[in-house]
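Render this sequence as a predicted structure.
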Amino acid sequence: MNQELLKNNCFADLKEADMQLQNWRQKYNEVRPHEALGMKPPAQVYMPSTRLYTDAIARYEYDTSYQVYKVNNWGYLRWASSQIYLSETMANAYLEIRPSQSCDSFEVYYRQFKIAEIDAATQTLLSRKISRL
């Protein structure tokens, strides 16, 4: 899209940009053949998903062994006497906090993922590396 549409065109206004984008999308999806699709346009091979889409993600049920906290709507985790910024993408998510094996830090979990580590002494963020359990 960048090479074919955006790089070489100047649009007078948003209406013209929208019209050009719609034309490009129609050509790209319904006319232009794709080698990976056996020289068919995407519209010929597209099949809608049979799975239902829901806007709301069901609340995850954590093990009752550890405390669960809710991230505020700005992406901050209020824990102990501190406020730790994680990410706005985590806003309103429920997280589980567990002590680490070394006992000098705490691990923050989102569902089946370790998403952060907090220093126990300073209550500051040590890491935001993500790993699967």
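Summary. The chain has a mean pLDDT of 88. The CA atoms of residues 43 and 50 lie 17 Å apart.
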